[in-house]
Amino acid sequence: MRARFGVPLGITAVGAAGLAYAAGFEARSFRLRRLTVPVLPRGMRPLRVLQLSDIHMVSGQRKKRAWLQSLAGLRPDFIVNTGDNLSDPDGVPEVVDALGPLMEFPGVYVFGSNDYYGPKLRNPARYLLEKAQGRHGLNGNAPAVGAVHNPWEGLRDAFDAAGWVGLSNTRGRLKLDGYELAFTGLDDPHIKRDRYEEVAGGPETGADLSLAVVHAPYLRTLDAFTADGYPLILAGHTHGGQLCIPFYGALVTNCDLDTDRVKGLSTHRADGKVSYLHVSAGCGTNRYTPVRFACPPEATLLTLTARD
After folding, report:
1. Cβ-based neighbours of 116, under 8 Å, separated by 6 or more
2. Strand ranges, E, within 121-229
3. What is the pLDDT of residue 224?
4. 101: burial class by Cβ within 10 Å (0-12, 13-18, 19+)?
5. What's the rounded mean pLDDT across residues 93-120?
6. pLDDT (tens digit, 9 = 90+) per residue, 120-137?
7. What are phi and psi of 204, to 5 degrees?
């Protein structure tokens, strides 16, 4: 009896322990990633940028709210929010509360699909199937039917009231200690809301620095930003793979970006030009898959320094 059932029971026990760790500990083990990116003109002082992404707030997540509030102690020069703040139609007040101290700083933002629509329960194995078939989001699948609409307008109004600049298929600027910072943003490519033709043309003349911002790092948007000459692209969406294999890494990115660049700082090349790309692993999960494994939730403090 012991020989016949011991192995399956052992596998079940290990799986249960892994799930308990992924949901009970790692999904709430918040981290801060620190990076240095040499993209500023010579003579410009370093700038500290706090990037937040994929908060996926669900009502009652007190630890996440307290951690986000504590990030104000970093005193960044400005904030970049790369979307997917919500995973609950009732989550807007809690997002605003969590980001309240950070909204005292200058900031810019784009939205992701989960800001517009509530999540749906789906088999996680579908992400692997869609990757194998080359289908990602609405870029390869049929439009969602019966989706829950999130009250994203309230989130937009709160960000705008704080002075944060919305970048959905538009450009914007921040003035910071005498510097002019220009931003070009896109609405979420994952649900085909991106309209690059409306913002094409490259970095703005007269700005000390121009950055590109998008939620989902689809290759078409990275190619366009890089070909236009942006030195740095900031994105989120991937959750860093969310469920990773130790010593191997992510299996999926939930877009057409390769898994080698699923999170952190890398480079992107297009038309003979090179841009830095930073993809945030984000600090939340879809409410129906509240687990992370070998991929802790994070925010990133990027220190921008002078080019080499």
Report:
1. 149, 150, 152, 188, 191
2. 165-166, 170-176, 179-185, 209-213
3. 98
4. middle
5. 96
6. 777 676 777 787 788 888
7. -80, 140
